Amino acid sequence: MNLFRSEEHARNWQGYQEGAAAGLQPLSAIAAIWGADRYRERLNGHYVSSARDYLPQVAEITARVTGGNPFWKR
Amino acid sequence: MNGDGVEALATLPAKNDCDGGAVWQDAGIPLTTPDARVPRKDARRAGPAYQGHAMADRDLLDRAFHRVLLTFIERGSAPHYTELARDFGLAPEAGRTLLHDLMAAGIPAWLHPSTELIASFAPFNNLPTHYCVSVDGERKWYAQCGFEAAAMCWIFPGKTVVVEAPCLDCGEPLRLTMRDGEVLAAEPETMVGYVSLPPKEWAQDLAFA
Questions:
Q1: Residue B194: enclosing H or E segment and its boundaries?
Q2: Which of A29, A35, A48 sits opposite B58 (nearest CB)?
Q3: What pTM value is reported for the model?
Q4: Which residues in chain A have their CB less than 8 angstroms from residue B207's CB?
């Protein structure tokens, strides 16, 4: 999971796989997904116990920002 | 993956990934505590005393998770299991067991191979990565990956978090500035993220993902 200067740079990278083009996402999508409670609640003191509760939200956000692409289905 | 106890756990990948927890929990497998290794039918036979014990263990995992993150925040590196033991009034061996239970609890973290040293504990990495993190101008952390770099701001609420990295294609710099989930600046503005593995496969090799 890496950041690149642009889509062109990501596609030029030796690790890029044409069959996994859906793995390419704008920064806004990455920030949205990694802004879910699954990631923002890590300091709440009961994170391990609560981890399962965060799954529906992160799945919903992921589906929304990726247009429901099956690559991102969790 | 399906199942209800030790057999099912044995089929799980050794490593967790950025969402390893999702994979484990989606499979209907409980968070791993020492008790969770006991098949559920045995847990039911054990009765209330067993269940109470399991709850206490989960609370300890919560506190250990929190302690590891706080240690990263304070000094930029992970604690050793002997430090966890000391913090919780445990013998070193119990601290070692606690660390292993924590790392098996479905969180995106793993130990360095052949050691009992934390290698990565999202969003942090204990080994330097190319994602260097500065908070309010102090640079002493590393992000687990480019995507977790975007979650680093939640660990430092109210503070300006800057992630600097070279682009893996050209080596030219990237600079991402965030605060409380808001992208304050992305240099260049065309910055994107890429992962070649779909989320459902991350658990098979988090370090690769």
A1: strand B192-194
A2: A48
A3: 0.80
A4: none
Q: Which CATH number covers residue B181?
A: 3.15.10.60
Same domain, B112 and B131: no
Which pLDDT score, from 0 to 100, does residue B158 have? Answer: 97
Q: What domain range includes position B99?
A: 22-121
Q: Are A36 and A19 in contact (CB under 8 A)?
A: no
Q: Are B181 and A9 an interchain contact pair (Cβ–Cβ within 8 Å)?
A: no
| Residues B91 and B39 occupy one common structural domain | yes
Which residues of chain B lie closer than 8 angstroms to A7, CB-CB? 190, 192
- Considering only CB atoms, which chain B residues are within 8 Å of A40? 151, 154, 181
Here the tokens at position B170 are 């050209």
Q: Which two tokens stand for residue B44?
A: 């039911």
Q: Does B11 reside within a domain?
A: no
Residue B15 lies in a domain: no
pLDDT tens sequence across B135-179: 999 999 999 999 999 999 999 999 999 999 999 999 999 999 999
B101's tokens:
């239970």
- Per-residue pLDDT tens over the stretch B126-135: 999 999 999 9
Same domain, residue pair B112 and B148: no
